[in-house]
Fold this protein.
Amino acid sequence: MQVIETLAEGLKRELKVVIPAKDMEARMNERLAETKDKVRINGFRPGKVPVAHLKKMYGKSIMAELVNELVREKPTEILSGRGEKSATQPEVAMTEDEAEAEKILSAEADFEFTLAYEVIPAITLKDTSGIKVTREVVEIDESEVTEQILKIAESARTYETKKGKAANGDRVTIDYLGKVDGEAFDGGKDSDAELILGSNRFIPGFEEQLVGLKAGDEKVITVTFPAEYPAANLAGKEATFDISVKDVASAAAVEINDELATKLGLESADKLKEIVRGQIESQYGSMTRQKVKRQILDQLDELYQFDTPQRLVDAEFENIWRQINTDLQQAGKTFADEDTTEDEARVEYRKLAERRVRLGLVLSEIGEKAGVQVTDDEMQRSLYEQLRQFPGQEKEIIDYFQKTPGAAASLRAPLFEEKVVDHLLAEISVTDKTVTKEELMNDDEDDTSASKKAAPKKKAAKAEAAEGEEAAPKKKAASKKKAADEADAE
């Protein structure tokens, strides 16, 4: 077998691979010899079929199998021999001329194919001891724990029907019918909807107009959907709602005690406080880690500058671009709404893709040299988290990860990256700084993954509708079980 390099330009490589016809024929004869004792052909005793007859009957099909095997196996062997790693699966090309293919299958011509690929650049690791980061830490006040418990306790709060007018904090039970230009719209109707006045769960201006109503009252209210409302057919439109009040109930006082904890599925108030505090610590800890990780990535970005495999960049850019356009579409926006143009956005997100790929390669090299490993147990836990997010679809998800090439790698990559960050945190200079939660949350952009995220200078296409808004107001009464689940630590 001959391997001839026909292109070495930057990271691009092209190789011409030639396997002589005589070698192909020898391989075919070996395969025929193995087949001789297995085939059954009328007129011949087992094992006595002449090789020439076998070759006539099966020669070309065996040669086709050999060609497929060589194309599948040789690229890895060749690259390993050259000490190279391909950034993506090498592209294999061979003759499409039927006459030439016929000669190859008949062992009358050499089998030739080409490999085109980009090599992963050699990365010389640099000293990271000079990297310095500030780890922002929030001290959690007892009042914040109490506030969070009271929010969780809303689902366990009891209400008693009262006489008189509804006030903020009261629960009203209503029937409503929404109309635009006098016509009812889809999703704008509900019966026995329960709404806590002042919760801001419905569109702006809706709840305020229910204050002062009492059971038995009927009223038509007028509201305007936000201009950036997710449902394009309602965005910015004025709507009326026919309201019928069926019940007004006032909330009983909530006390943080063992009785409340029991309602939430826990054994004591102390346990409730412990779990809620742990949740808050976890939330702030996640934000802290994001900001620390961003600092590390930004400094690695300054330390390492090298050409990146364009095929990897292309693939990463396509992922980013697809998400950006999906976000724009869902928000009903254009690039002009984000003070940019499509061409400018392409340039920006292309740079982002290059950064992600480069930092991903750097972290991979650091992790490999440090012996970072992702265990089977960690992979199983990650898969379990995926299953938790899609109840009822467990079988489909498991089948996907078992049958889809590269799917397991998508689970492993973020786990590996986080472990590399842990490794770096043990080597770099980390200074703790106590901050308020407002300071911690300031400028908290979601740009922390080198393989999937990096700090973009602009943010395109984010839906700005308030959380929880629907095409029309809907009841959202949480169950006690849900409250207990929310209180339970992850």
The chain has three domains: 2-118, 158-253, 259-459. The chain has a mean pLDDT of 85. The first strand starts at residue 2 and ends at 9.
